[in-house]
Write a structure and sequence with these properties.
By secondary structure, the protein is α/β, with parallel strands linked by helices. It contains 13 helices and 15 strands. The structure holds pyridoxal-5'-phosphate. The site of pyridoxal-5'-phosphate has 15 residues, from helix 4.
């Protein structure tokens, strides 16, 4: 189906931050499969975990005990301070679980039509409920009737949510990204999550964080909310969790930790031995190779590099960097920069029309970081010197 506008390149091999196409040309990958391949391509620990587990057992179903799933749940709970885990196969599914938790929670409080507050600029997935929760109208248009039970407010604005409270006693939860991903790497005020936390406490709402893109070390801590020192009741993960093997998770805590009783939710594939073995290996590798401090080191390198080359340039609206989530916002749409970068053997992404987004792997070398900075800066300067395209 023609639902993707793909670039004209086919990759056949990868190693670390490098990819090779079917012509043998080598590319530097600063997209990482959209924040998925944190450990780069064909990492030896991941490859051997997949091969070894495939020799033992791939799938049985959730009709039975799965010890690797148990082990992964315990590890994630320990890293996050959450209490329980449900496993699925994608980010959208993780958010579907969160939405169902919010509704069950609402009904348990006697709310007939439980409603979730979501934000503009948010991206939560492509299923009907998660596209309804998504801020971008282009993602929603044409799929009406949308799912009821959502209210939208501007991002990074706590007052807008507080103002809804009185008129909307049906609100039961707030669902936000700690930093928007597809929305353009928008980093909210440092106290945004803390203020949301106390607002949720005051009204008995669930704070539900979508860390599908920001989680698993992407911002230099395991989860982005750990920078704020606060805690959600529901946390969703996917992308980096499996380094390319599909797996998603919805973690819960406190009054909703055990709200899914037997039969209330499920997934055939979710949390199978292969996916869980790989996710455990991802976590162990990030730990044993000290990759969280490395992400922060690389953050500094990108901050310094781009502030030397691009900061203050006319046409560069903002440079936003947290860990290895990098957004460079221009004053004009710049989707074509992705194919221009491809011609220079670099993979970059453009999101929210005007934001160059880089999500390189944590195993990036200093030299690779410097090449990304050099090529992107060159492309941006060249692009901005052209007459501005019609908006
Ligand atoms: C990618 C993403 C999703 C959707 O994940 P899929 O695996 O594509 O369903 C949801 N939320 C955020 C923040 C994302 O970045």
């Amino acid at each position: 189906m023609p639902n993707y506008a793909r670039l004209p390149v086919t990759f056949v091999k990868g190693e670390g931050a490098w990819l090779w196409d079917d012509q043998g040309i080598r590319y530097l990958d600063a997209v990482g499969g959209i924040a998925v391949c944190c450990l780069g391509h064909t990492h030896h620990a991941i490859t051997s975990a997949i091969c070894d587990q495939a020799k033992h057992l791939i799938h049985t179903s959730n009709l039975y005990q799965i010890s690797l799933q148990q082990e992964l749940a315990e590890k994630l709970v320990q890293l996050s301070g959450m209490e329980t885990a449900f496993f699925c196969n994608s980010g959208a599914e993780a958010n579907e679980a969160a939405i169902k938790i919010a509704r069950l929670y609402g009904h348990s409080r006697g709310v007939a039509e439980p409603t979730i507050v979501v934000t503009e600029g948010a991206f939560h997935g492509r299923t009907l409920a998660t596209l309804t929760a998504t801020g971008n109208p282009k993602i929603r248009d044409g799929f009406e009737p949308l799912v009821p039970g959502f209210l939208r407010v501007p991002y990074n604005n706590v007052t807008a949510i507080a103002d809804l409270a009185e008129q909307h006693p049906e609100i039961v939860a707030v669902l936000v990204e700690p930093i928007t991903g597809e929305g353009g790497v928008v980093i909210p005020n440092h106290d945004y999550l803390i203020k949301l936390r106390s607002l949720c406490d005051r009204h008995n709402w669930l704070l539900m964080l979508d860390e599908i893109q920001t989680g698993m070390g992407r911002t230099g801590k395991w989860f982005a909310y750990q920078h704020a020192g606060t805690h959600p009741e529901v946390l969703t993960l996917a992308k980096g969790l499996g380094n390319g093997l599909p797996i998603g998770a919805c973690l819960a805590r406190g009054k909703v930790a055990d709200i899914f009783k037997p039969g209330k939710h499920g997934s055939t594939f979710g949390g199978n031995p292969l996916a869980c073995r790989v996710a455990l290996t991802v976590i162990k590798t990030i730990e044993s190779d000290d990759l969280l401090p490395r992400v922060l080191e690389l953050e500094q390198r990108f901050v310094q590099g781009f502030s030397k080359t691009l900061a203050g340039l006319k046409g560069v609206v903002a440079i936003r960097i947290k860990g290895l989530m990098i957004g460079i916002e221009l004053d004009r749409s710049c989707g074509q920069l992705a194919s221009k970068a491809l011609q220079k053997q670099l993979l970059i992404n453009v999101t929210a029309e005007r934001v160059i987004r880089l999500l390189p792997p944590f195993i990036l070398s200093d030299a690779q970081a410097d090449s990304i900075i050099a090529i992107v800066s060159h492309l941006v300067k060249e692009y901005l010197s052209l007459p501005a395209p019609h908006q």
